[in-house]
Design a protein that fits this description.
heterodimer; A: 292 residues; mainly alpha; MetI-like fold; B: 2 domains; 15 helices
Chain lengths: 292, 345
């Protein structure tokens, strides 16, 4: 703001106390930024420092070894996470996008506001509570823990984020585009799917990826749904290992070897998630819409 | 791409030209009208219904969560009633349950987190919107938001192996020596305990509070700033009078939203708070939170009353976060006028 600076110069002289306060406050603000970025750097530094030495081929291809034996890996947990996230996406993504379409295309009314508000509130429900609900509606009926139950829990968590970003992205599509389509005699549903949604694709994908990144690292809702497993399991009706669960189990264990593996697992997890977030950033920058 | 998007609808659309060229008998006219109906209104109704179902589904999810929690906590509610929230004995063996230590731990750790996180987040927001060079603005907010992308379990891992040793070796002995007389900082500095939980929570909620504060600060019109500066204010006075005062309601919303996140945060807290259901005055002492007890005991709970008591804790947590989040959203909406902006929580 070059104008404001000129204004400040014009208003000299100023009392020493006010000028000092100004400087102190500026210093404090800079200080808070440093204090906030410090843990970020420390966390990433430690992850790389402790994790990189522990990632090897065995870690990525083998299942956990029993306590006392060194070696082994988290291959089953990595695959398990992918299975659970896949189930979550299959359930959560169409549901969330559908609700987003409703809000953007039909929801400019009080009922739409109610749903909008509900989605925002749902976003703040603790993940552990959603875990309890998934336990109650899936595990209790299946009579055992399962990857499917974990997927349901994560799907519930994905819905509000996807709903709100989809709505936002659809609203960015100019009204004239819709009207042009109606003018050609295209029915409304077809317009929504082939014109509006299609134009907003990159933005909607951004929302989906954000939701995905958010649930990918979730541990709490998986504790009593997917439960974890020391062995290979691809049956979605059986207890399944997941990367965050495995990290948790290993981190609170008393064994050095397991701590080492926990750091390696954390590094793999963060690479997956930050990779997704970075991909989103790039997609947003190169996408037509989404610079909101 | 755009071309294809425009051509596709024509292939199965009503195609008015061809319909017009047909030599129609009355019966065929009827058929043509039916065709237009079927490609027009009926699928339209169906599509709208489908999307409406998804929308109602979002509402349904919230109702479902509430219903299931209510249903499964019934047993405990009938056994203990309101005493459940006022008694501090947690004894699974004799099936006697009181949730007070968990409620206490949740509230204290969250408030501790707010005390640490609020000044930090406001400082970061002020710096990124009002002080820093334009070129630095994007990267800086990106890095702060990156904090929000780190999974809770990784915060916990880092806290166990990095934060806790630092706390027990340097920070807690120092606090004990200087502020021990208050009673808040006494006892053995194990590192594991309420204070560490509060600090790790603070780090986790800074991105939420600061991004919402930044958002509501940017809604403050530019001429407001210029007007205050024109009256002879320094930059800080301009921020205080012109910006922060106008952004108060939205900032309160952001802070409450951060509180909501802190109340429900599970993994990182579970890993450092010590998990002991006791109410202690000292912040060095171990505690337990509502979310942590669920994480630790739910999958191992034997007996219906035990499980029911845990679900009731979940229900209480759910209701509190619903109220807190609703309040926060209303405050933020009142500033940004309900414009759909990307969700931060």
């Amino acid at each position: 703001m070059p104008d404001t600076r000129r204004a400040q110069i014009a208003l000299e002289p100023m009392s020493l106390r006010r000028r000092l306060t100004d400087h102190v406050m500026t210093g404090l603000a800079v200080g808070t930024v440093i204090l906030v970025l410090l843990p970020l750097i420390a966390i990433f530094g430690y992850l790389v420092y402790r994790g990189i030495g522990s990632i090897n081929w065995a870690f990525l291809t083998q299942t956990p070894k029993p306590v006392g034996e060194s070696g082994g890996g988290m291959a089953n947990a990595i695959v398990g996470s992918c299975v659970i996230l896949g189930i979550a996406s299959i359930i959560g993504v169409p549901f969330g996008i559908g609700a987003g379409i409703y809000l953007a295309e039909y929801g400019r009314n009080t009922f739409g506001n109610v749903i909008r508000f509900t989605a925002d509130v749902l976003n703040g429900v603790p993940s552990i509570v959603i875990g309890i609900v998934a336990y109650a509606i899936v595990v209790l009926y299946q009579r055992h823990f399962s990857a499917f139950a974990g997927g349901v829990a994560l799907a519930i968590m994905m819905v509000p984020t996807i709903t709100r970003t989809t709505e936002e992205m659809l609203l960015l599509v100019p009204r004239a585009l819709r009207e042009a389509s109606y003018g050609l005699g295209v029915p409304r549903w077809r317009t929504t799917l082939s014109i509006t949604l299609r134009t907003a694709t990159s933005g909607v994908i951004t929302g989906v990826m954000l939701a995905f990144a958010r649930v990918a690292g979730e541990t709490a809702p998986l504790l009593f749904t997917a439960f974890g497993n020391q062995f290979w399991n691809l049956n979605t009706a059986q207890p399944t290992a997941a990367l965050p669960l495995q990290i948790f189990t290993y981190a609170i264990s008393p064994y050095d070897e397991w701590h080492r593996q926990a750091w390696a697992g954390a590094l793999v997890l963060i690479i997956l998630i930050v990779g997704a977030v970075a991909a989103v950033r790039i997609a947003v920058r190169h996408g037509t819409f989404g610079a909101a | 791409m755009a071309n294809r998007a425009f051509q596709q609808p024509n292939m199965s659309g009503p195609q008015p030209l061809e319909v017009a060229n047909l030599k129609v008998s009355p019966r065929q006219g009827e058929a043509a009208r039916w065709l237009r109906r079927s490609t027009g209104e009926l699928p339209d109704q169906f599509f709208k219904f489908l999307m409406l179902a998804c929308g109602i589904g979002v509402l349904g999810l919230l109702v479902l969560i509430f219903y299931e929690l209510l249903l499964r906590s019934d047993l405990s509610w009938h056994a203990f009633g309101l005493r459940f929230f006022t008694q501090s004995e947690w004894d699974p063996v004799n099936e006697h349950f009181g949730a007070l230590p968990f409620i206490y731990g949740t509230i204290v750790s969250s408030i501790l987190a707010l005390i640490i996180a609020v000044p930090l987040s406001v400082g970061v927001a002020v710096f990124t919107t009002e002080m820093c060079p334009r070129a630095l603005r994007g990267p800086l907010s990106f890095f702060v938001e990156l904090l929000a992308a780190i999974p809770s379990v990784i915060y916990g891992l880092w806290a166990i192996f990095v934060l806790v040793p630092i706390m027990s070796r340097y920070i807690e002995p120092f606090l004990g020596k200087t502020l021990g007389w208050t009673g808040l900082f006494e006892g053995a500095p194990y590192g594991i305990g309420m204070l560490s939980a509060g600090i790790i929570l603070a780090i986790m909620i800074v991105p939420i509070i600061s991004s919402i504060t930044r958002e509501v600060m940017m809604v403050v019109p530019q001429h407001q700033r210029e007007a205050v500066l024109a009256l002879g204010a320094t930059r800080w006075e301009m921020i205080r009078i012109g910006v922060l005062r106008n952004a108060r309601a939205g900032m309160a919303g952001g802070i409450i939203l951060g509180l909501g996140r802190a109340l429900g945060e599970t993994m990182a807290v579970t890993m450092v708070i010590g998990n002991r259901p006791e109410i202690a005055k000292s912040l060095f002492a171990p505690g337990y939170t509502m979310a942590s007890v669920l994480a630790n005991e739910f999958s191992e709970a034997t007996g219906n009353v035990y499980l029911s008591a845990l679900v009731e804790i979940g229900l209480a947590l759910f209701l509190v976060t619903i109220v807190v989040n609703a309040l926060a959203r209303l405050l933020v909406w009142s500033v940004t006028r309900g414009l759909p902006r990307s969700s931060h929580a």
